[in-house]
């Protein structure tokens, strides 16, 4: 009678160990980390607090926005670090950077320290924003290597949760701190760092093994993520029209967190099936002397860091490059024509989108929308950012597998769509900012999974940690030129015209503000033209890669999975 509970508890411990060390729990931890890695998209919500408390003009605020984008997109250091250190170290470095950067911004805004110089604030926000690259590298790259045949679906899900993070954090800060935008900065400082620390040892690279229900599991996660996004969108709209009590905010935040954790139930069911099949194939040993029962342990691949140091000749870099889809070296990939075209398309696409996102709060203000409505714009953009990422990930994967539809062509269509959203801000009408928020959020979100998937497909996964971070380098450059050098000065020029009409000068007011349709018109006409040019440039990449996408780009990964299964079966039969 007493043996059964002990045996049952031992089996439960074995299953728990199996789950914690499994690839599905690692993916769940990646979902949570990515859901906390989108603090940069909330800049439009708390930027007004920075501007008013520190007395910045729009050009200075846009300079902060540039350094935020610079930190968020220059992830080369995190990529190189991941090539030579374990994933847990990458995540810990990112957590410490996130807490330090945003905590110092919060200290500055609430007046806990003396007003810092502008360059110091730029450093703080760059440091905090750069931390998301460490989360991306640790969680996204590891997950893609663990599920290489479903990279489009996987990247779409992971980046989708990042796109939702703005709306999720908005619900959490309303529940914890109330309607206080400065406290949002504090939440951004401690919450993502805490998530990374909790799951720091969970996320790691494992051997590729074919999962029989892999696609079905991803579609379950897609359904859950869509329900979460719809819930957040409804709550965003309801909170704009109905005055919520603190208890109501707590309730909505609780439901959002429950939906965020729901994929764990799907993964537990999948791991239970794997656990049972493993026990049937490999029953526990009876002997207690020579072969005691061994818990299920996942075999982790060791990184071959020596190959990273291999010197390549001029011919290797420029002439004797591998075929598309094979593993390029870092220099071979960065100095290729395909990467150059991706750089131009990213400069135009993400540069214009980031500029629109960073100025969304001021756009709403210039058109006379109230503060609650402006916050709705930011939340709607975050939610449709999610739908764009999910769409580009899953739909591009389905079209690629079934119809050999090039992912590069999908990028062209997304860039053309963004032009429409930018023109809606340049020529606004009643309610146009709502539509523009949806379109810009969708197109902005769709670009990232496409960029990351294209880089992994064209240049291989061997140095993906570095290459996908390098692929984003054009984004901060585009943001700097289009936001700091174009949009900010044009806005300030219109604001000075307004002051001149009132008989005032710049020194007469603390904050430089422009009101009217003309404030952003010229700037966003330029942005729309740049996005259109990026779409035309991406068409060149479509022509270059269409033959590659007509082939079987996942063949080698299926062969690797089959070889691993054969090796495991041979080991079990011995």
What does this structure look like?
With 574 residues, the protein is an all-alpha fold. The chain is built from 23 helices and no strands. The chain has helices at 3-20, 23-35, 43-54, 58-73, 76-84, 87-109, 118-146, 151-176, 181-198, 214-241, 246-261, 263-281, 314-318, 330-334, 337-358, 360-366, 371-403, 407-426, 432-459, 464-470, 474-501, 521-549, 555-573. Helix 8 packs across helix 9 (181-198). It starts with a helix and ends with a helix. Mean pLDDT is 84; it is low at 285-309. Keywords: Membrane, Transmembrane, Transmembrane helix. Residues 23-266 form the Nodulin-like domain. Its main location: membrane.
Quick tags:
NFD4_C, 574 residues, transmembrane helix, mainly alpha, MFS_trans_sf, Nodulin-like, 75% helix
